[in-house]
Amino acid sequence: MDREFIARGLQRSSPGRFLLWILPWAALLAFGLYCAGLCLAKGLNQTNMDNRFAFGLWIFLDLTVIALGAGAFLTGFLLYILKLDELRAVINSAVVIGVVCYSGAVSALMVDVGQPLRSWFTFWYPNVHSMLTEVTFCISCYLTVLLIEYLPIVLRNRKLRDVPSFLVFEHKLHNLVYVLAGVGTFLSFFHQGSLGGLYGVLRGRPFAFREGFAVWPSTFFLFILSAAAVGPSFILLTTKLVETLSRKRLVRPTVYSLLARVSGLLLAVYVLAKAVDTLVWINRTSPGHGFLASQYYSWKPFGTWILFAEIVVFGMLPALVMLTPRLRAHNGWLVGAAAMACGGVALNRFVMTVQTLALPTLSFDSFVSYYPSWQEVGTFLAVVAYGVLLYSFSFRYFNLFPEERELRLEAAVHEEESALAGRY
Amino acid sequence: MTPRKRYGMSIDIDKCNGCGACMMACAVENNVPPVPEAANDRKGITWIRVYRVDNHRAYPERRTAYVPVLCQQCGHDTPCVHVCPQQAVDVDPETGIVGQMPERCLGCRYCMVACPYHARYFNWWDPAWPAGMEKTLNPNVAPRMRGVVEKCNFCHGRWHAAQQKAAAAGKREIDAADYVPACVEACPTGALRFGDLDDPSTEVAHDAARPESFRLLEKIGTEPKIHYRSQRDWVRDIANAPHPDGKDQHRG
Ligand code: SF4
Ligand code: SF4
Q1: Is it true that domain B7-238 has CATH number 3.30.70.20?
Q2: Residue A422 placed within a domain
Q3: Residue nearest atom 4 of ligand 1, based on CA coordinates
């Protein structure tokens, strides 16, 4: 029965092994849902946030996850608009990663607000000046786009294809890909940007506040760039991980090389822009608000090392590795650089969310710290487990890597040839 | 629209002795539930908070002062109004008072992150009053529920009561004596004064114009309407950004 749902020509583990793989994740999901349930039923007193640390682990991780999910829109844009056809090999996987990241982040946000049932108010009484309104609108629209993009992947399932109307519908949806890629890119630009804008507009938090262009602070553009830069790295990492876990070749090395080049190039541009932005902020924006930038870094543990790590260690270095053909041809360097790029974006989101709130604004206020509660950690683990499960099911039953079958055949032919060569 | 009035407050730090009567009066007036002993930022809500500050000198030169901090009623680019996604915070054009609508609040807490003065409080818990104490609740102020943000609104209930009184008497303007926030009324040393900053005849407008008057974090451009004052240089210095050597200062 299970076999009938798996695409022809693809090899997947036995149902028993698959069950063994998903069981621990399902258990984690159940635990996480219990934690989220506690927060919803008993309130946010289940978290360790307080009036000074009003945003905590969830916002930091949501911002990170959404940046990592940017690979979905960028791959779509590069493939359908810029016609980089090699990326067809990863587009389906990128869409699933996008769905996982965005739906996971939105679910965590629903737990993070004090009155989730009032979420629709933002659509009813929108404050057009608020970056959060922009975030809410763009993320909801983009998640819808992603789900529409995910649907054809599901409908192309071997068994579902037997239903003629599904096939017709899938074909119709497929014709929309160019429009969806365009709309997705547009929406992604705005929500990635407005997530950066969330903090950049905070004149009351001079550590985060940035000047900018029109209504958008510079963080708006930096967030777009950094998300676009790490999106391909994250696709590269996940594909490598799936290859390792499933012990299969899923894409050709040229695809990795292309992903790394795109990631490296965008990361280099980002690092440059971030460096200029930091200099303007240190020399003009922050002192203009009466805050010497040096004082932000005198509150331990957030010394200047964090700035160095963000720009040089997790920015410049991985960009250089990914842009150097000899280095990126080496698996260890390639994976290491992609992981560092992703780590860099996580660090940046950490700085924007956690460091911003930890620093005092009033002279008689103190530096504050916060550790997430187990309920907060558990809720986030639910998002991780949900992501792994959705991806695992998608990998098993849908054709996420269109080149997989071909690569398998090639490998089989190659094996046969070597066997023959050995015989004669 | 320019506000018809621009209500603000002046606080004489040299007079404040840190007794906390303002905090108590505020809580009673605005139905802020009592908090357990040693309440912290998670357990307690207080619309006005008295911080203790010192001059970072060792004894015998050590000096202490008390600074009541409430919503500063930012008058320009009001950070909390600007960021709220669903217009749950607004500025009343008639009074310039920054108001909070808990019924519309999503509890996203973005406004708390935006407020430079940490003057906003989230209801992490269900509000609860010890048995019998609910009879003391102020009928003019709706208690807030779990999951929403609240803050000082210059005793909005009193503003309404003053308006009603004026309307009943057939007057269009309220009598200034009818609208005084609870903290101002309760302060035993008279450190707090309240009134229309745009009316030069008011004490508060006069206080705001004094050379020893200052506002917190003036450089960030929020134009707060709470004017502090002190004759002491080191106290006036608290208006500025934090200084690394100020790490050991205490929070009230
Ligand atoms: S002090 Fe804070 S709560 Fe009050 S108006 Fe300013 S930003 Fe809003
Ligand atoms: S917590 Fe409430 S008042 Fe504050 S920004 Fe969110 S919706 Fe607006």
Answers
A1: yes
A2: no
A3: B71
Task: Please report where in the chains the tokens 């407050």 appear, as a residue.
Answer: B9
User: Which band of pLDDT confidence, cut at 50, 70 and 90, is reported for residue B248?
Assistant: very low
Taking CB atoms and an 8 Å cutoff, what residues of chain B touch A44? 107, 122, 124, 147
Whole-number pLDDT of residue B250: 40
Q: Please indicate whether residue A123 or residue A2 has the higher confidence score (pLDDT).
A: A123
| The two structure tokens encoding residue B74 | 């930012």
- Confidence class of residue B252 from pLDDT cuts 50, 70 and 90? very low
CATH of the domain at A377: 1.20.1630.10
Report CA(B116)–ligand 1 centroid distance (Å): 7
Q: Count up the domains in chain A and report the number.
A: 1
Contacting residues for B103 by C-beta, under 8 A, at least 6 apart? none
CB contact under 8 A, B148 and A43: no
Q: Provide the H-helix boundaries in A156-252.
A: 164-175, 177-200, 218-246
pLDDT tens digits, B169-213: 999 889 999 999 999 999 999 999 999 999 999 999 999 999 999
Summarize pLDDT for A236-249 with one digit per residue, the tens: 999 999 999 999 89
| H/E stretch holding B99 | strand B98-100
| Residue scoring higher pLDDT (A405 or A21) | A21
Q: How far is the CA of A295 from the centre of ligand 2 (A)?
A: 30
Cα–Cα distance for residue pair B196/B211, rounded to 1 Å: 19
Q: Which residues contact B166 (CB under 8 A, 6 or more apart)?
A: B172, B173, B174, B175, B178
Tell me: pLDDT of B2 over 60. no
| Contact assessment for residue A151 and residue A210, using Cβ atoms and an 8 Å cutoff | no
| Token pair recorded at residue A129 | 């000046």
Residue A105 lies in a domain: yes
What lies within 8 Å, CB to CB, of A149 at 6+ separation is A72, A76, A95, A98, A177, A180, A184
CA dist B10 and B18 (Å) reads 16
Structural domain of residue A401, as residue ranges?
2-417
A262 in a structural domain = yes
Which residue, judged by its Cα, is nearest atom 2 of ligand 1? B115
Q: State whether the Cα torsion A414-A417-A419-A422 is positive or negative.
A: negative
Query: How do the domains of chain B map onto residue ranges?
Result: 7-238
CA distances from B43 to A52, A115, B58, B110 (A): 12, 19, 33, 19
Q: Which of B74, B81, B156, B225 to mutate to test the pocket of ligand 1 (most atoms within 8 A of CB)?
A: B74
- Judge: A292–B241 Cβ closer than 8 Å, yes or no: yes
Tokens of A1: 């029965």
> What is the distance in angstroms between the Cα of B250 and the nearest Cα belonging to chain A?
7
Choose which residue among B49, B72, B225 to substitute to test ligand 1 binding: the one with the highest number of ligand atoms within 8 A of its C-beta: B72
Give the pTM.
Answer: 0.93
Tell me if residue B44 falls in helix, strand or coil: coil
